[in-house]
Amino acid sequence: MFALTSDSASRYDVSRSSDVVQHASTFRDWEDNRYHALGGKSPFDGVMRDHSLGDAVRVCAETVRTPFLEQIGHVPVDRILILQLLSESDVLLNGRFVNSETVFVSSGKTIHAIAKSPIHANILTIEKGLFFESFDVKSKSIRESLPFEHFIKPIDGTTSDFHSQFQAHFSELDRSTTEGLSAVHSIDRILAATGEIVCADGDAEVTPISSTTRAYIVDKSCELFAQNFHDEAFGVLDLCSRLRVSRRTLQYSFETVIGMSPSNYMRSVRLNIARRSLMTNPNEKIQGLALDAGFGHLGRFSKYYQEFFGELPSVTVSRCKPTSARALDLVAH
């Protein structure tokens, strides 16, 4: 097992945000992590509890309260992600429906998830070399030298223990900040629970997770759109052509799997991308940022933006500008 001591460098952060863009930035081990609030004006409340002990292990507990959310991120090739998602309804994760009984293990791969109800995530990331040194990995799908993704669904209740150890760990961390205690032993228990799941994988103790045709169509559509969102002309017919499915099949797949039409999904994502750009680049011209997100007509963009987010793009920009820049704008007008 891992050689962790109380002398290992420890860092514990708790962040809370009412903004989806700000919350996405709390993923320190992921590359280009993004959230898209697909529910429009629905309120957002995100909490990230993030603990690292040394450079090799990070334990996070994330809670997001919003009715409709998409996440796109990438796990570095030198890290292993172990992920458990808990929600009232199954979550679409890389083309498969998962719940609390599923553990997702991945490295060097893009993560794409869509949740239709509030979600809690137990997130463990481990340095890849240390992971294979410490666990007796039996599954051939979990690869030491190549990117991979693998779904594990144990049938012996170990996922419940995995979740319980996360809860106990962060409860102990909260006490340690006031009582000077060490959380090393509770991390050891999380790693032990992880070992039980990973080491049993490949035996008869696990059941496979398969993808449905509709889930596959939606996941691949989202992937294709993520590569082409900047092209205003890219739309439903392009997805049908690339995936070789009828428009009716595409429409039915989206409505069945995530509860919205493909055209509404694409517009929602483009609006989220534009809003992220407006918030992170408030000194850039709105029209240029809208164009980069696939909106060629500024008037229509402003209308869609206000309907979706409840404010005009200019209001978002004004709020995100430094105080000095806002003062200059007032003087100029």
Walk me through the structure.
With 333 residues, this protein is α+β, with helices and mostly antiparallel strands. It has two domains: 10-200, Sandwich (Jelly Rolls), CATH 2.60.120; 213-327, Arc Repressor Mutant, subunit A. Helices cover 43% and strands 24% of the residues. The chain has helices at 20-24, 128-134, 158-179, 184-200, 213-228, 236-243, 247-257, 262-280, 286-292, 298-309, 313-320, 323-332, and strands at 10-17, 31-37, 45-53, 57-65, 69-74, 79-87, 91-93, 96-98, 103-107, 110-115, 119-127, 148-152. The strands form two sheets. Strands 1-3-4-11-6-9-12 form a seven-stranded antiparallel β-sheet. Strand 3 (45-53) and strand 4 (57-65) form a beta hairpin. Helix 3 (158-179) packs antiparallel against helix 4 (184-200), helix 5 packs across helix 7 and helix 8 crosses helix 9. The chain is globular, with a radius of gyration of 21 Å. Mean pLDDT is 88; it is low at 324-328.
